[in-house]
């Protein structure tokens, strides 16, 4: 029993190479198919993720069913992912082309209160998802949005038009100062 659990059944280098290659293929697939973030996944996206993990399992572990083989695959995946994330973070300002290749770029979906339908179709974003993003980012309607982008990480980032933005504490303090000056002027009369 311990023999089959602890003894690798394929060479360590092959296990690492299989894991790296599957990781790269999956990254390329996800980059090619879109940039929806984890928060924006729908039921179909979750089904694909669950099935995908099962589909590539044998490609990663091969005929190795040992505990050590599984641990090597897991460590390789986590280490590779950490390395890629650090590479993206380190190159962000210095190598924009590499960052864009690894991470992607943002796509404008709303401009001056108008939805860009072609971008929405290309990204696979439904109107209900966009309306939800507007509401969660302090808007009531798309017409209130100056600019809206789906960023490289898959988040919808919206900027309200200036006239639609809520008053800040500084705005209220400024109004209080103006009111105090008006009251002082009226008191002098």
From TrEMBL:
Membrane-topology descriptor: Multi-pass membrane protein
Keywords recorded for this protein, A-Z: Cell membrane, Membrane, Transmembrane, Transmembrane helix
InterPro entries: DUF421, UPF0702_alpha/beta_dom_sf
Every YetF C-terminal domain range: 97-166
Keyword Transmembrane: yes
Subcellular location(s) of the protein: Cell membrane
Domain of life: Bacteria
A GO-annotated cellular component: plasma membrane
Residues annotated as transmembrane: 12-32, 39-61, 67-88
Family under the similarity heading: Belongs to the UPF0702 family.
Protein name (database record): DUF421 domain-containing protein
